[in-house]
Amino acid sequence: MFVHNKRLQYTVRVAGPNPGLANLLLEQFGGPQGELAAAMRYFTQGLAEDDAGRKDMLMDIATEELSHLEVIGTIVGMLNKGAKGQLAEGVEAEAELYRSLTGGGNDSHITSLLYGGGPALVNSAGVPWTAAYIDSIGEPSADLRSNIAAEARAKIVYERLINVTDDPGIQDALRFLMSRELAHQKSFEKALHSMRPNFPQGKLPGLPEFTNTYFNMSQGEGEMRGSWNQGGDWIYVDSPSPAVDGGDGMATVALPDKDGKVLAQMAARTLSDPAADPLTGADIGSGVTKK
Predict the structure, then answer these.
(1) Angle at the Cα of 23 (from 18 to 24), degrees rounded to 5?
(2) Structural domain of 219
(3) Tell me: the pLDDT tens digits for 192-241?
(4) How far is residue 213 CA from its own chain's centroid?
(5) Are 81 and 221 contained in the same domain?
(6) 280 assigned to some structural domain
(7) Are residues 95 and 140 in the same domain?
(8) Same domain, yes or no, for 128 and 227?
(9) Domain boundary residue among 193, 227, 242?
(10) Which residues, other chains included, contact 284 with Cβ-Cβ below 8 Å and sequence gap of 6+?
(11) Would you give the distance in Å from CA 231 to the centre of its chain?
(12) CATH of the domain at 149
């Protein structure tokens, strides 16, 4: 059950209309790192979670993300208030109205025209929100790591949005939302490390001869050694060659005799002649005649 409180989780104070900024803020409304994506990610994970502690945490954070969506959507609507009325009533001259909508240098005029100044489930470039943003796989040790990364990406987007506005009220609200991303990262990391073991993900162990091996696949100037490829259990292979399993590196398949015969017939029928040099449409079009 959801019960909506009409007051926002955080007080929003907007200094004045700014359609360009409103369009940029849509990134956190309907974008891949935005609040709707976060809410749906954690909500669907929570519904499938069997651990009582993780389920409670996921549902709490999913619900909070919906409140963050409300904050961002409210800011977008307030920033578009002036444009909304002007577009609806046509009180300004055409040129002046167009300048006010495009002053932000982005697609704010499109957003205002299509959605009437309200928050739409698109990102700042007008790309519609999609469930493809949700990458949950149903394994807590993998999903929690993905959640930590998602919160980190959202924090970075909030930092960038803070840097493109000098409205103190909006900056204040964005700093709150950015800070909550940090709180959620901490919760997810605590939940991850409360699972012992949590690596490797899933149930099956990796093959020892490959789990601890580092292949130097990008060779030449700029090669570096560090804790990611040396020390501990690492086996460093400086010049890997096929096949690392000790085989010949060739792909084979065991076919029934009847399939092998049919494939041989097809190969013979489609055989290329390396000595052929046929006249082609490209040759005719070039105007050059072969001798």
Answers:
(1) 100
(2) 206-267
(3) 999 999 999 999 999 988 999 999 999 999 999 999 999 999 999 999 99
(4) 29
(5) no
(6) no
(7) yes
(8) no
(9) 193
(10) none
(11) 33
(12) 1.20.1260.10
Sign of CA dihedral 250, 255, 259, 264: positive
Query: Residues 137-151: pLDDT tens digits?
Result: 999 999 999 999 999
The Cα 177–Cα 170 span in angstroms is 11
pLDDT exceeds 60 at position 84:
no
Q: What's the domain count of the chain?
A: 2
| Residue 68 placed within a domain | yes
pLDDT higher than threshold 50 for residue 95: no
Whether the predicted model's global pTM rises above the 0.85 cut: no
Same domain? For 136 and 211 the reply is no
pLDDT at 104 over 90: no
User: Which residue shows structure tokens 């924090």?
Assistant: 155
Question: Any residues with CB less than 8 A from the CB of 283 and at least 6 apart, and which?
Answer: 290
The string over 277-291, giving b where at least 16 C-beta atoms fall within 10 Å of a residue's C-beta and e elsewhere, is eeeeeeeeeeeeeee
Rounded mean pLDDT of the chain?
89
Question: Tokens at residue 124, please?
Answer: 């700042």
Angstrom distance (rounded) from CA 196 to CA 199: 8
